[in-house]
Amino acid sequence: MAEEQQQPVSVAEFTTIEAIFVRQRNCLLLRGDMSPLYVDYYLHLMQHGMRNGECEDSVVKKLLAYFTLHLVSRPWQEYHAWTLNTHTPSLANYFVSGSSVDEEVVCRAFTEGVRRPDTNMLFAQNLRHNKEPQTSVITLGDGSVESWIEAYYRQSEQRMARAFDLGGDHFALLAAQPGADHDWLEALSLEDILRLDETEQTKVLETRRFYFRCGCTVEKILPVVRAMQHDFADQLSEQGYVEASCPRCGAAYRLTSEMLRKPDDAS
Fold it and tell me: 15-212 belongs to which CATH class?
């Protein structure tokens, strides 16, 4: 008898994050399956000929997951961005940003020209409409990505949080709310989180969805390069084009002399 062919596992179009209130513990549980985000992220890397090292790939995936969960712990109309400068587990910079309004997150890892810090650092920015940007600088230490997220919450959010890799692209973030049971939160194990729906009274408050998407285009890149094209004059003269990349996602664009010519330039 011929072996039955396995059907391919379908991946949702977007990642759905649940915000769940844990009653009597006064904690907010954020959790979700990051598979759709990861699929789009790796397609983006392939499309633009980019590839991360194994270490950087592991870090950027976790940062993307926990950052997305963090967005759902915050009010809708906020834009957040994190930039990390690390010397362990490798010398690298990481950038991740997004908002619930746009339903998008984007991330990038840098390994070239990175300044070596004395300790791992996180630079966080929160932007709200018609408000001054809020910035904070967090010392992370040399632990796991989960410990970095928990350090961020202690130092910037001024509240306790626990971060968990649940396996299989599933992640959870549990953040203290006013009156939280801090002893319970601090003592939580991975097994406790996996059984939380069975052992605690919970209520789903909302769900939000996210795509891996930057929104950069040639049309958006052109004005920036046009303003600097005198710096690329020799390169344009020799090869007829320059290469520019998006600082947010790393997407590469080849811009020709014709493309850089302003519409009102003489023919």
Answer: alpha beta
